[in-house]
Amino acid sequence: MSVPTSIAEFFINAEPGEGIYDRITDSERAGIASEFKDLPGLIRDDLNKAFSEALDVGLADIFCGGWAKLQELQEYLDPDKHPPDEISQVSLAKHKIGSKHAPKLQLYLDEKLVAELAIDIELALKLEGIILRISSGRITDILTGTYQGTGKISCRGFTLAQENSGKFALPGEWTIKGGFPIPRMS
Hints:
The structure is a single chain. The protein is α+β, with helices and mostly antiparallel strands. It has one domain (7-181). It is built from five helices and eight strands. It has helices at residues 7-11, 20-23, 26-32, 40-54, 59-67; strands at residues 88-92, 95-101, 104-109, 112-135, 138-155, 158-164, 168-169, 174-181. Strands 1, 2, 3, 4, 5, 6, 7 and 8 form an eight-stranded antiparallel beta sheet that branches. Strand 5 and strand 6 (158-164) form a beta hairpin. The chain starts with 6 loop residues before the first helix and ends in a 5-residue tail after the last strand.
């Protein structure tokens, strides 16, 4: 199994062409699509496409979003301690990152909004052996480490996907395009 690098890949360990909407039961699908009484056959592909787009969030972005809030990274914002041309490597102890997302899927028919589905995505990730490269107050690369986690996607009270991953080694060096800014904390 390849290392998941996005929320979609974390949840969809499915056959090629299969999406989350394909993986739920008929009764769950009926509950979600109840307001589409005349449309269920027509919306399957659109729902799979919409779910895929909503889940197209890189795990590196989620990791960096959690790391950027660490107090220990604040010193890398000080140009006197770490000049802009300096490249630092920072090791992180075992830690956890939680992430919640709530995208809304909007379905249109003939340019008219026929439904809006709010989905809830929750991830709880455990990371260890992480080494970051930091320059100019930005996380520029993830050099090494492992992660594992649990996650759940739900919609209107129905669990669409639930995952408890094994441990994954990060796929080599991940370069963060443009770097992920470390915000100044007060």
